[in-house]
Amino acid sequence: MAQIIGGVATTHVPAIGKAIADGKQNDPYWKPFFKGFDYVHYWLARTKPDVAVVFYNDHGLNFFLDKLPTFAVGAAAEYRSEDEGWGIPVSRTVPGETALSWHIINTLVADDFDVTMCQEMLIDHALTIPMALMWPAAAAAKGGAEKPWPVKIVPIEINTVQHPLPSLKRCFALGRSVGRAIESYDQKLRVMVVATGGLSHQLDGARAGFINRDFDQLCLDKIVAEPDALTRYSIHELVKESGSQGVEFLNWMAMRGALTGRVSELNRNYHIPISNTAAATVVYDNQPEEARKAA
Ligand code: DHB
Ligand code: FE
Asked: What value does the mean pLDDT of the chain take?
């Protein structure tokens, strides 16, 4: 059976892609953010995942406001990116774990989640920036021959862009269903789950530049042992507390739902600001055996 080894959650600000392209990882502005990935690299080298199931939100590259699914699951053999206009290099194509995608889709629909299934799906900065941060050597390789991506992906897209948005509770439940799907998948795969986006930020309107350190800390604390406590926030309360783009925290809640074992935080990096965003990078351990023993 497939095993969920843990998770990584990280901010996905496009300017990070420009900093990588310009080799600015050690500049005073960028270092406090990039150093949060030292532990991620150590953890990935130690745990060696085969697959990353990635909860993220598209910002208009694949889905636009005219047709916007609440939840969409990629089921492609590979995922291409395109120029989004941020002035950052376009990512290499990322391979898909198609059979696991279909298993997850089947499980989600059986669990009453009416997802959109995508046999073609462009991936935007919300997926490509975290890939480049987690596997910088593979991201930089030309053509893919020398240094292939060490994982295949299953992208799961959540609408955080156009209201009405799904609730924190619904995203947590979606993650739970994805977690059960992974654990019932009849292949010996080491699966990590990834969440991208957040934490607090607002890019437009009267509160542009809004950041809420206290609320971010509360979210980071509660998501480990008391995720249910976060599900009591409505979407409008979440917008108020975390900013109109801080709602990308929905991706974190879905990821947390997919961690079905005993969960602990292995490493946390929080830094204000990166561009307009309170930047956070967290690594979570998942111990399925421990959870079963405790039950
Ligand atoms: C920024 C943050 C985002 O989440 C995003 O998708 C685009 C830009 C920013 O802070 O610049
Ligand atoms: Fe974003």
From this structure: 96
Catalytic residue (one of 103, 125, 163, 236): 125
Q: Which of 12, 59, 201, 271 is catalytic?
A: 201
Nearest ligand by distance to the CA of 277: 1
Domain spanning 3-294: CATH superfamily: LigB-like (3.40.830.10)
Q: Left (φ > 0), alpha (ψ -120 to 50) or beta: where does 243 sit?
A: left
Reply yes or no on whether 201 is catalytic: yes
Whole-model pTM above 0.70? yes
The residue type at 173: A
